[in-house]
Amino acid sequence: MDCYTANWNPLGDSAFYRKYELYSMDWDLKEELRDCLVAAAPYGGPIALLRNPGRKEKPASARPVLEIYSASGVPLASLLWKSGPMVSLGWSAEEELLCVQEDGVVLVYGLHGDFRRHFSMGNEVLQNRVLDARIFHTEFGSGVAILTGAHRFTLSANVGDLKLRRMPEVPGLQSAPSCWTTMCQDRVAHILLAVGPDLYLLDHAACSAVTPPGLAPGVSSFLQMAVSFTCRHLALFTDTGYIWMGTASLKEKLCEFNCNIRAPPKQMVWCSRPRSKERAVVVAWERRLMVVGDAPEGIQFVLDEDSYLVPELDGVRIFSRSTHEFLHEVPVASEEIFKIASMAPGALLLEAQKEYEKESQKADEYLREIQELGQLPQAVQQCIEAAGHEHWPDMQKSLLRAASFGKCFLDRFPPDSFVRMCQDLRVLNAIRDYHIGIPLTYSQYKQLTIQVLLDRLVLRRLYPLAIQICEYLRLPEVQGVSRILAHWACYKVQQKDVSDEDVARAINQKLGDTPGVSYSDIAARAYGCGRTELAIKLLEYEPRSGEQVPLLLKMKRSKLALSKAIESGDTDLVFTVLLHLKNELNRGDFFMTLRNQPMALSLYRQFCKHQELETLKDLYNQDDNHQELGSFHVRASYAAEERIEGRVAALQTAADAFYKAKNEFAAKATEDQMRLLRLQRRLEDELGGRFLGLSVHDTVTTLILSGQNKRAEQLARDFRIPDKRLWWLKLTALADLEDWEEIEKFSKSKKSPIGYLPFVEICMKQHNKYEAKKYASRVGPEQKVKALLLVGDVAQAADVAIEHRNEAEMSLVLSHCTGATDGATADKIQRARAQAQKK
């Protein structure tokens, strides 16, 4: 253990810091880091170097080289920089490289050097050029802050949703600030800058002068400033050699340290662990590295070569031409187990396990000591936690063996934490491998989450490893394997040296019917890469027509889209394609396409009936469908034409169409309608009133109501209205007029073709029993009972029914007998029934 703690360095009495090597860098750097623009992504992310930015000693023809490496120094991409002069580099939270040019244009590249997009920071930045820039991270995403040549600041808090903010002007600022940085307070991005001995805080509305509390006197300038990884703390390096540390709100001072060095540092970053009370800052000069905090003495390291600091959630990564190291505060669990002469339960359990392997009785003594204090569960938990914070697999195994050994002596220790730690460490060790180059710590891994880690493996095109992790952790397919296979397929379609047929077959063999995989998304990526035929082949594997059709339309394969929509049976989808085709094709080609698809033609006709009547007429004309064309003109004559001449002309066109369709009945009916319209127009001219648009029956009724009986009869003869129907119409109309005298004359004019029961019914409907009784006596024998019952003469109805000896009529009369008044009548019918049954 003494050897294990040899690289531990105390900072005060309460914390130790250690620095260990992550990788031996094998990258072939031909220049010093100081001669390059450098950007390294947090959470073990990639490193970007722009060689030769603005080097005057190089020939003018030499272009800068942008290179991207993994954290272990494995080359990922290299490209000649052919754009404008670069000012700053930085990585977004999605591991996209943001390259800020002098003209304010920001170019975005992928991890493998593929160009994604670009955007401008505005005209003011373009006119005044960029002096300096910062890439920063907030809870909303990744932002860019610009200092222009006019000494004004412009920023966007989220490059994914670009909204430029021009910050207020700093009064009296005539030159660039000595140092500046971005901060996020209350969900708003601010800029803190130093001008001589003064500090100014810029927000979207105002420029405020701020003063750090408890700052040592004599400060004439701030040389460097740093905001912590969580944006909660701020460090200021002054020209007096003092480092002030406090809250980012500048309301509370944590401590102040005199490093006795007045030279401005190259870099200054925070080095703190989550949930730790210790606060420390790492300061780097050319050949010296210093860790300072709330202690009288700092920790100093000698730098053998030019180095670069990368702040992390729980420490600082330090890389140079030859090595990549990690500096952090020793976690509490590790400190308690490994510090010299520790009697913590975890330390005793680790010793007990080692003695047990040696078959020594001391193992029992250590275990008894832990058990007597009741600290065995705590000891097991300490070993599990410490294993997570160890970088080397041998030490992880040693601590986990100790935890497993201690668990054997506990009855009810839950195994979840042990199993989960074993799984997490196996994943971490896999991604820390040199060829993968993602040196995540346990704290960073938990903060990042497994889903984000899988996304980053996919970005690096490490699909097999990502799938193995998903299978090992038994993640749901939709979140794990399916999603990764979909990304793999999207990458596969970009391989243009492989034929479309081979790519489609390989993707289908690999994916099959994997749940959660959308072939349409993969096809869309293929189309975006200019491989239309491959996209069509991939869509053949897409089972959902609703996903196939929109992409086919986008690819201008409308006829194929129509076939797919029809196969799906989804009418909404068919309508969508039809409307697209209508806008895309000329009218003739569109109609010819519909003729080859009967279902689509039928649906389009339905649509036209409600939306585009003229198009419907054109369809009927093209198909020589005279029957439907005639029906169309009939409907159009009433829907569109108000003038009688226009309506008659439309009906004449309809009649001609019906004759062509050999539908003589429809043609004759249409001609009759034309004749009726002309007659109605004449009646309106002669009699006044409204006749146009009425049916033949209504026209007759209106004439009778107007007292034009002879004209009504003539109209009935002209249009061959049967006598029965005419009598009904006349009877109903006269009853509505309550012209009882005319009704009586009408009934005696000749023998009624409808009988006299309708007269009784009409009179009773008008509540005129007196008139109804006149006609009841004239009703024929077969309807006599019904007529008598209608006028309320139950007794006489009973006599007629008995006389007819009709069982149905007697039952009908009985049903109308009510109470004592009709009791004699009911008895009379019952006796008649009895006599009839005896016979």
TrEMBL record:
Signal peptide: none
GO biological process: autophagosome maturation; endosomal transport; endosome to lysosome transport; intracellular protein transport; vacuole fusion, non-autophagic
Subcellular location field: Late endosome membrane; Lysosome membrane
Record's function text: Plays a role in vesicle-mediated protein trafficking to lysosomal compartments including the endocytic membrane transport and autophagic pathways. Believed to act as a core component of the putative HOPS and CORVET endosomal tethering complexes.
Domain Vps16 N-terminal: 4-420
Main location: membrane
A GO molecular-function descriptor: actin binding
Coiled coil: 349-376
Species: Monodon monoceros
Family: Belongs to the VPS16 family.
Domain Vps16 C-terminal: 517-835
Bilayer topology term: Peripheral membrane protein
Any one GO CC term of the record: HOPS complex
Taxonomy of the source species: Eukaryota, Metazoa, Chordata, Craniata, Vertebrata
Name the UniProt record assigns to this protein: Vacuolar protein sorting-associated protein 16 homolog
PANTHER family: VACUOLAR PROTEIN SORTING VPS16 (PTHR12811), VACUOLAR PROTEIN SORTING-ASSOCIATED PROTEIN 16 HOMOLOG (PTHR12811:SF0)
Keywords carried by this UniProt record: Coiled coil, Endosome, Lysosome, Membrane, Protein transport, Transport
InterPro entries on file: VPS16, Vps16_C, Vps16_C_sf, Vps16_N
Keyword rRNA-binding part of the UniProt annotation: no
